[in-house]
Amino acid sequence: MNVRRLIPAAALAGAVALGATALTACSDAGAASGSGSGGLDVTASFYPMQFLAERIGKDHVKVSTLTKPGVEPHDLDITPKQTAQLGEADVVLYLKGLQPAVDEAVAQSGVKNVVDAATLTELEAHAASGHDGHDHAAEGGAEAEGHGHDHDHGHDEGGKDPHVWLDPSKYAEIAKGVGASLEKADPDHAADYKKNTADLVAELGALDTEFKDGLKNTASRTFITTHSAFGYLAEHYGLDQEGIAGVDPESEPSPARMKELQAVARKDNVTTVFFETLASDKTATTLARDTGLKTDVLDPLEGISDTSQGDDYFEVMRSNLKNLQKALGAK
Predict the structure, then answer these.
(1) Is 200's pLDDT higher than 50?
(2) The pLDDT value given to residue 133
(3) CA distance to 181, 224, 261, per residue, from 131 (Å)
(4) Sign of the dihedral defined by the CA atoms of residues 12, 18, 23, 29, in that order
(5) In this structure, are residues 249 and 287 in contact, taking their beta carbons and an 8 Å threshold?
(6) Are residues 297 and 265 part of one domain?
(7) 35 and 176 share a domain?
(8) Where are the beta strands (DSSP E) in 226-300?
(9) How many other C-beta atoms lie within 10 A of the C-beta of residue 8?
């Protein structure tokens, strides 16, 4: 997720009222991509939902996604034609609270089987800074630009962080709910969905163990990222996330935030500023240059593209683990 421009309060309120779920733009021709040849037509909002549908449904489903590969999910606009096409799906799988355009389209679609991943696990509020343990924005405190909090998008009206798929344990909970929903929508293949779900949950459990073991003993517990999408990951593995969210991606970080991050980097032995493949690395490189730090990729896995460090969820997550281990000084 890239760091986006601050938007006016009225516009933000409108997005929040929609439920804060924005997926990447589809072509007017319809869903951005599809896979499978099965009888159950599943429309997924963006890559993490698409991946679950494909791995659990396999040959019994035909999966299409609203988000084109390589396009930033939050920037999605959906046309009336696409909303109508959405209404033809047998199952719609999305994450309410991430993409306002999708929330609105799903509400208008009339689809019987709608699966909201946000209801399948517990969502939490996360501050952009992992050091204070609470979200100043939720307190109605100062929200000056450059304080690292994510003001412009990415949270629903409850202030909850939607990036649950970056914690394998929470992603496994969502997988179980998706599997149960596919069983209900297509009972003739329920046994296959149940087995595929169990296999995926086991694989996610193994990934969770890899992260726990790989991040158990590190020289630092703090990482800096251009967008604070990694709150669940940081919390689950005992790390501190320092985000530069709320700063225009085309401008340099504010002097106040720069000074704050420089202090954090010195205090917590930070070596690296992370950026993501779907966003400009300008903010990260500027901060790194001015603080004497390195840059590297930490992928929020909102989409798979030619620049992704892997071909699927597991490959990219393992690449994230390696990059975190390197940056944190894993022993």
Answers:
(1) yes
(2) 38
(3) 38, 12, 12
(4) negative
(5) no
(6) yes
(7) yes
(8) 240-243, 272-275, 294-297
(9) 9
Q: Is residue 44 in some structural domain?
A: yes
pTM score: 0.81
Instruction: For residue 197, give the CATH number of its domain.
Output: 3.40.50.1980
- Domain annotation covers residue 2: no
Cα(23)–Cα(300) distance, rounded to whole angstroms?
14
* 197-204 contacts at long range (C-beta below 8 A, 24 or more positions apart): 197/56, 200/52, 200/55, 200/56, 200/172, 200/175, 201/172, 201/175, 201/176, 203/314, 204/168, 204/169, 204/171, 204/172, 204/175
CA-based nearest residue to 228, from 140, 320, 149? 149
Half-sphere exposure of 82 (CA within 13 A, CB side): 26
Residue from 45, 207, 192 nearest 118 by CA: 45
Q: Which of 152, 175, 209 is the last residue of a domain?
A: 209
Half-sphere exposure of 171 (CA within 13 A, CB side): 29
Strands (E), the chain: 33-35, 40-44, 61-65, 91-94, 113-116, 222-225, 240-243, 272-275, 294-297
What's the mean per-residue pLDDT of the chain? 80
Q: How, if at all, do strands 91-94 and 40-44 pair?
A: parallel
The number of folded domains in the chain is 2
The answer on 220 and 205 residing in a single domain is no
Q: Which residues of 275-296 are buried (b: 16+ CB within 10 A; e: fewer)?
A: bbbbbebbbbebbbeebebebb
pLDDT of res. 151 = 32
Q: Where are the beta strands (DSSP E) in 66-160?
A: 91-94, 113-116
Sign of the alpha-carbon torsion through 276, 281, 286, 292: positive
Give the confidence band of 306 by pLDDT, cuts at 50, 70, 90.
confident
Band (135; pLDDT cuts 50, 70, 90): very low
Which residue would you say has higher pLDDT here, 38 or 194? Answer: 194
Instruction: Write out the residue range of the structural domain in which residue 309 sits.
Output: 215-328
> Is residue 10 in a domain?
no
